[in-house]
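request received
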Amino acid sequence: EAGVAQSPRYKIIEKRQSVAFWCNPISGHATLYWYQQILGQGPKLLIQFQNNGVVDDSQLPKDRFSAERLKGVDSTLKIQPAKLEDSAVYLCASSLDGRDQPQHFGDGTRLSIL
Amino acid sequence: QKEVEQNSGPLSVPEGAIASLNCTYSDRGSQSFFWYRQYSGKSPELIMSIYSNGDKEDGRFTAQLNKASQYVSLLIRDSQPSDSATYLCAVRGGGFKTIFGAGTRLFVKA
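response:
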C-alpha cells in the first residue's frame, strides 16, 4: 500500500513570497489533514477535510493560508504572503475516517523563510 | 491550559530497561488515543492506538489507558538504542479533532 505522498520535500523562499504544497493521501482514505510542526513542538492541525468538505479549519490563518481538496483526493496548501514565523515542517496525513482510525503521515515539507 | 500534556524529557534509560512515557489530557469526551514515534528530521510514525480502558500490548510496546484519570501511557520493554526518538501522544476528542502533545524525547543508552 502506497503511503501519503507529499511534495516538495524542501522549500526555501523569501518573506512575502508565496508557496504551495501538494499532498496525495493513501488510496481510499476519506479524511485528509494538514499540520504545521515547529521545531520542538507537536504537530498543530491547520485544516481537516472529510472527502472534499472542510471539517475543521479553526487554526488556519485564513488571511494568508488557504487549502483545497477539490475532488476529494489530493490536496494543496498555499501560503501567500509568507512570514518568517511560517518556517516549519508542513505535514499531510490521512485516515480512513475522521472518527476512530489513526492518521498516517507523509514525509512532510520543510519550509524555510529568509 | 494545554489540552494534551507530556513531559518533554529527555528521558534517559539504559539499554534493556523499561521506558515509561506518560500523557494527560483535558477533554473528558476523548475516545481515541494514539502514540507516534518521530525520529529527528522524520515524520511521525504510528506505534499504537488504544480506545478502551486497560492495557494493550504489541510486541515490546504496551499502551495503558485510564479514562477516569485522563491518563494514557506507553511502556517500551527491552529498550534499544534504536528506540531513541521523540514520542508523541495524540488524543481525539469528542469533536473528532486530534490534538498532539509536544512529545517526550527518549534516549536509550547502549
